[in-house]
Design a protein that fits this description.
heterodimer, A: mainly alpha, 2 domains, four-stranded mixed sheet, B: 2-methylcitrate dehydratase PrpD, 60s Ribosomal Protein L30, Chain: A, 6 strands, about 45% helix, globular, mitochondrion (chain A), antimicrobial (chain A), MmgE_PrpD (chain A), MmgE/PrpD_sf_2 (chain A), immunity (chain A)
């Protein structure tokens, strides 16, 4: 039976069905929980991106992107001194978001927001003057981008586990960005299909560049290429209208691929409603967050039993029980990128310092002798029951002292995981701490206000203005809500 | 309990490169010199350059090219230094010029094909043309540098394809130009820009993260983007590497549990390239390229030659080509889903249809540019012929451009059977196009958009490429 408003009678393909849903979803479909969760994601992503603009990788891509310029331009987060064409703004801001591996993570595994937000914000600035994009339009497009990613991830059993072959943001992230941009551009059904088809031909980067300086480009490119796909489709370019149906389409990236149609639009069940994201508390691979919590806890116990002093030289060995994830198993990381992808590094840092922060990954801290001494004593074990899935993995840290005593603790769910979400104050604190590295207090406050009231904002260009650091006072009249 | 190693301070600076597959590629790209190009390789690669330009020029008249160009012009205007095929007044920024020209090159599926299967030139030439115009006057590469960089781009593609046995057959999952083409473009550009060995390594690493498009967009308007993006993104990778971007230095090596370039293959066995000492044998020496005689997928060329042969027999038999005498047309072809289309409805589908190309050849006695126009595709006589086609897949007809054949049999109402078979079509590497045929194809293509003097200038320039002092002149002449 066709439910009210569903156009699924016309399409017999999954690709067509996706196009229908992208077209058909509107603001009324957004539930309160989805709105709330997605706004948290938006805020976190902006903060992480602003912080990321100061990284070396970001400087390099900015220099590169400056060789292009045009009349139409979009904001580079944290900068008022120059702008870039929308495509390159999406690219650079996307790189910024993932530059420190500080952005959100979902289940099945991907970094959903970084691939979508930079693209939709950049695109929102590229419309002709008369056309205003409201905060609600932006929020809806964002959620379409997230939803499409989640749905695609569910088409393959492989996606449940931490990846080995293709880096998920480059596969589903590109598709999500494309869908979100198609939504914002209000493309018709045919063009939505073509957007997905074209985007597929940009998707997919191998995992081996994780833990290198190139990894952030995965998210930057996902955002940029998704936007490009939507723009090309908007100009009439056509691709394979069964791109999601075929094994030689998006199926090419998986060994088991079983696409399904989306639910009908009536009371649309958003995945974000059922499954929240994890927000990171420090900039490193999600797997290390379990390690950090367990290690901090072991450190506390150690200190308690030896008069509030850490008995470093009495430590004989450190054993980490973690799942088997080759690209996060690095006994001796030498760069910040490697350190962010090292169970061992995070365990030892947390043991030394008590907690992890942005500062844990500076060059001095990566190379300090005390840390290297501890790293020498650290080894990994992979218990059979510790599956490499962000839904079910755990970490056990156990420190053995010279006298034979062993102190250990286990973390099943770190603070920030979807089972134990960050409280509002902590999310805001993370944002403030990040954003204040490049923006004045007025702008950071204004961004928080704007995102919290996003669905009421009449013209979302204010968000871009605050992102470039412009003062809220001057623009206060633009904050008038509907 | 000696399993924790004595901690060794990480050695960051290396005096001699470790012999990984990736570093051997970087060494090759960095160290190979013009002297390493043999006569055969120079000759063959110049033919490829000429054909690729011609194909790109005629491709600049297509709709897909139009869209790509409009897109690039609307979104970007500055630092417009690089020329666009067939548009003398237009310049774009280098990567977008590469993109647009790459799209032009593959827009009609008229560009060259190699074995193992890929379209090598379209992925490399546009990037080099664009880059040559980007460099300041004092450092313009000469024709020899250009020719060398072009061959580096081909060589890297060929070597990478030899890492997997899957590449020998017509592809099913990832479209090869989008996989190896991107890497070839990165390598070629790195060579032209004289990047250091470390930078060459990183160019390859960055390029890998930009490679790989699924097959499903073949036979659609989006397919030309695969070449456009391969050449553009490979160029981008080299430019980023030149600016210091770093990637995984083991990207071509086998990394268990975490895929690098191997992600695109089920079976992957990489081997190091030998550093070119006195003698390096380029793959192009042993394995030539196929040039297409008409704008369609390479597989079509076998059935067309077979169809033309049986058509002649039929005309001798019946006095003229009389379709009403034909009961069934049997095509014996290899199994390959994306080129088996009984009733194609678009030009892109028609270029990827054994049935369409066989019937067009039977009907018209030739297949050319005009065969793929809207009116040609939908004509009644052709549909009638298509209705009579059945397809067979003999076991000995493998989906492999080195081994496949095409056979067309006409089963007449009278009971007679006429057959034509083609093992090696004219233009295949076993039966290469003569110089005259290649020039004829180029002149025919280029004349769609360029005047005669310019056409002859390009021919002369490419023929004497090694002697050109400023290779950016080639790009400016387009």
């Amino acid at each position: 039976m066709n439910s009210m408003g569903a156009k699924s009678s016309k399409c017999k393909t999954i690709t067509g069905n996706f196009a229908d849903v992208i077209r058909g979803l509107n603001a009324n479909h957004l539930t309160d929980q989805v709105i709330q969760r997605s706004k948290r994601m938006i805020l976190d992503t902006l903060g992480v991106g602003l912080l990321g603009t100061s990284t070396e990788v970001c400087h390099k891509v900015t220099q590169y992107s400056k060789i292009y310029s045009s009349e139409i331009s979009s904001t580079i987060w944290g900068h008022s001194d120059f702008r870039l064409p929308p495509l390159y703004a999406a690219f650079v801001n996307g790189v910024a978001v993932h530059s420190m591996d500080f952005d959100d993570t979902w289940h099945p595994a991907t970094h959903p927001s970084g691939a979508v937000l930079p693209a939709v914000i950049a695109l929102s600035e590229a419309f002709p003057q008369k056309k205003k994009i409201s905060g609600l339009d932006l929020l809806l497009a964002f959620n379409v981008g997230i939803e499409v990613q989640g749905r695609l991830l569910r088409f393959s059993g492989e996606a449940r586990n931490i990846p080995k072959r293709f880096h998920p943001p480059t596969v589903v992230g590109t598709m999500g960005s494309a869908a979100a941009c198609a939504k914002l551009l209000a493309l018709d059904r045919l063009k939505c299909k073509n957007t997905l088809a074209i985007a597929a031909s940009y998707a997919g980067a191998p995992l081996a560049n994780a833990a290198t300086q190139t990894k952030p480009l995965h998210v930057g490119n996902a955002a940029k290429h998704g936007l490009e796909a939507a723009c090309l489709a908007s100009q009439g370019l056509q691709g394979n209208k069964q791109i999601l149906d075929m094994e030689s389409g998006i199926g090419a990236f998986y060994t088991d691929y079983n696409p399904q149609t989306l639910p009908t639009l009536q009371s649309y069940p958003w995945l974000l409603d059922q499954q929240d994201v994890a927000i990171k508390r420090f900039p490193a691979h999600l797997g290390t967050h379990w390690v950090a919590d367990a290690a901090s806890s072991v450190r506390r116990k150690l200190m308690e039993s030896s008069g509030n002093l850490l008995p470093l030289d009495k430590i004989e060995k450190v054993i980490l029980k973690v799942p088997e994830v080759k690209y996060v198993n690095r006994p001796s990381p030498t760069s910040e990128h490697e350190a962010r992808h090292s169970f061992q590094f995070v365990a030892c840092s947390a043991l030394l310092d008590g907690s992890m922060s942005v500062q844990s990954f500076t060059s001095e801290n990566i190379h300090r002798p005390a840390l290297w001494e501890l790293l020498c004593k650290t080894q990994l074990e992979h218990p059979a029951d510790n599956t490499p899935s962000f839904e079910s993995l755990y970490c056990e840290v156990s420190v053995t002292l010279q006298d034979g005593n062993a102190i250990s603790d286990r973390c099943d769910t770190f603070y920030g995981h979807w089972r134990k979400p960050l409280k509002k104050e902590d999310l805001e604190e993370k944002f403030q701490s990040n954003a204040s590295t490049v923006l004045p207090a007025e702008a950071t406050e204004a961004i928080i206000e704007t995102v919290y009231n996003l669905e009421k904002i009449e013209d979302c260009s204010v968000l871009s203005m605050f992102l470039s650091g412009q003062s809220a006072r001057v623009l206060s009249e633009k904050l008038y809500f509907l | 309990m000696g399993f924790w190693r004595k901690m060794v301070w990480p050695v960051v600076a290396r005096s001699a490169p470790e012999e990984t597959v990736t570093s051997s590629f970087a060494s090759f790209i960095h160290a190979v010199q013009p002297e390493h190009l043999s006569k055969t390789v120079r000759h063959r690669s110049k033919r490829m350059i000429l054909d690729s330009i011609g194909v790109g020029l005629v491709g600049s008249t297509t709709r897909v090219f139009d869209i790509a160009l409009r897109y690039c012009r609307e979104l970007y205007s500055s630092v417009a230094v690089s020329s666009v095929y067939g548009k003398p007044g237009v310049k774009l920024s280098p990567t977008l010029a590469a993109f647009t020209n790459g799209v032009a090159t593959h827009s009609m599926d008229f560009d060259d094909t190699w074995h193992p299967a890929t379209h090598p030139s379209g992925a490399v030439l546009p990037a080099l043309l664009a880059a040559s115009q980007m460099l300041p006057p004092s450092t313009k590469p000469n024709g020899m540098d250009f020719l060398l960089a072009f061959n580096v781009g081909l060589e890297v593609q060929g070597r990478l394809m030899h890492f997997s046995t899957e590449t020998h057959n017509i592809p099913k999952r990832f479209h090869p130009p989008s996989v190896v083409g991107t890497m070839g473009s990165a390598a070629a550009t790195a060579k032209l820009l004289s990047l250091s060995m470390a930078q060459c390594t990183h160019a390859l690493g960055i390029a890998a993260s930009l490679a790989g498009a699924p097959m499903a967009n073949a036979a659609t308007q989006a397919k030309p983007l695969h070449i456009g993006n391969a050449t553009r993104l490979g160029l981008e990778a080299a430019l980023l590497a030149a600016r210091g971007m770093e990637a995984n230095p083991l990207i071509l090596d086998d990394i268990p549990g975490c895929s690098g370039f191997s992600a695109f293959y089920g079976v992957y066995q990489p081997t190091p390239l030998s550093t070119p000492s006195d003698h390096h044998e380029f793959l192009l020496e042993k394995q030539d390229i196929a040039f297409k005689r008409f704008p369609a997928h390479l597989g079509m060329h076998w059935v067309v030659d077979a169809a033309l042969s049986v058509r002649n027999l039929f005309i001798n038999y019946a006095g003229s080509f009389s379709p009403s005498l034909i009961r069934t047309i049997v095509l014996k072809i290899p199994v390959s889903k994306y080129i088996n289309r009984p009733f194609p409805s678009s030009e892109h589908q028609a270029r990827h249809s054994f049935q369409f190309n066989a019937c067009t050849a039977l009907l018209d006695g030739e297949v050319g540019l005009g065969s793929f126009s809207e009116s040609s595709i939908h004509r009644q006589e052709l549909r009638e012929l298509l209705d009579k086609v059945v397809v067979e897949h003999p076991e000995d007809n493998v989906a492999n451009f080195d081994k496949m054949y095409g056979e067309v049999a006409l089963l007449l109402h009278s009971g007679d059977v006429l057959t034509g078979k083609c093992d090696t079509f004219y233009g295949h590497w076993r039966k290469p196009l003569s110089k005259e045929s290649l020039l004829k194809k180029f002149r025919s293509n280029a004349s769609h958009v360029l005047p005669e003097e310019k056409i002859e200038t390009i021919i002369t320039m490419v023929d004497n490429l090694e002697k050109l002092s400023d290779s950016s002149q080639l790009a400016s002449s387009l």
